[in-house]
Amino acid sequence: MLLKNYYLILGSWFSYRSVTLKDTSGTERSIIIGLYDWCKDVTSNYYDLRIRANSPEGNTDYGIVVGTSDMPVSPDDCAISVIPHGTSSGQLYYHPTEVKEVVVSNNVIEQEITRSISNETDSDIEVKEFGLILRYDAKGYNFLIAREVSPVTVPAHGVLEVTFKFRTVV
User: Fold this and answer.
1) Contact between residue 144 and residue 129 where contact means Cβ atoms under 8 Å apart
2) Over the range 21-56, which residues count as b (16 or more CB within 10 Å of their CB) and which as e?
3) How far is residue 14 from each of residues 22, 35, 99, 160, 170, measured CA to CA in Å?
4) Is the pTM of this model over 0.85?
5) DSSP 3-state assignment of 12?
6) Are strands 51-52 and 125-136 parallel, antiparallel or unpaired?
7) What angle (nearest 5°) sits at the alpha carbon of residue 70, between those of residues 69 and 74?
8) What is the rounded distance in angstroms from the CA atom of residue 2 to the CA atom of residue 101?
9) Is the separation of the CB atoms in 164 and 109 below 8 Å?
10) Is 15 in a helix, a strand, or coil?
11) Rounded to 10 degrees, what is the CA torsion of 116, 102, 16, 131?
12) What is the pLDDT along the chain (170 residues), one digit of tens a residue?
């Protein structure tokens, strides 16, 4: 389910207005997507305004993450109970999050974001929730924009392939 943060980010991007979102720590953050300062008719300060999901290997601050909570999804969700990265008991190994190219086929437009998460332990690990977190590079804030609750067990030495797919039919 796409969350309130997702729509607030879109609103800021479309209008260049400030919005207040809750980051993954629960702290309210005011941001403006696409803002830049002008001084004496010359651009004086470009902020690093990237918003991205393509997290590197081992990073669980943003990108696709999995967790342990089975609380129902709420529009105001801002975090999940992330299963930590690693190869020890109770940990999962997070490979890089990949943002795929947009695909257009006839009247269908799709964007996929994927991540492989492996269980490198000798025990099964239960995953109850899935999240997609965007990183706002200008300030280093992380915002949960999508969350699903759908329990699945990752077997010992197994791999979980997680995909968030954005799809529009025209």
Assistant:
1) no
2) bbbbeeeeeebbbeeeeeeeeeeeeeeeeebebebe
3) 19, 11, 22, 35, 21
4) yes
5) helix
6) antiparallel
7) 95
8) 20
9) no
10) helix
11) -20
12) 999 999 998 888 888 788 999 999 999 999 887 654 444 444 444 445 578 999 999 999 999 999 999 999 999 999 999 999 999 999 999 999 999 999 999 999 999 999 999 999 999 999 999 999 999 987 899 999 999 999 999 999 999 999 999 999 99
Distance, in Å, from the CA atom of 60 to the CA atom of 57, rounded to the nearest integer, reads 9
In sequence order, what are the residues at sequence separation of 6 or more whose Cβ sits closer than 8 angstroms to the Cβ of residue 103? Answer: 109, 110, 111, 112
Strands 103-105 and 93-99: unpaired
Residue pointed to by tokens 């030495």: 157
Number of CB atoms found within 10 A of residue 134's CB: 22
Give residue 55's identity as a one-letter amino acid code. S
Give the Cα-Cα-Cα angle 76, 149, 134 (nearest 5 degrees): 55
Residues recorded for the chain: 170
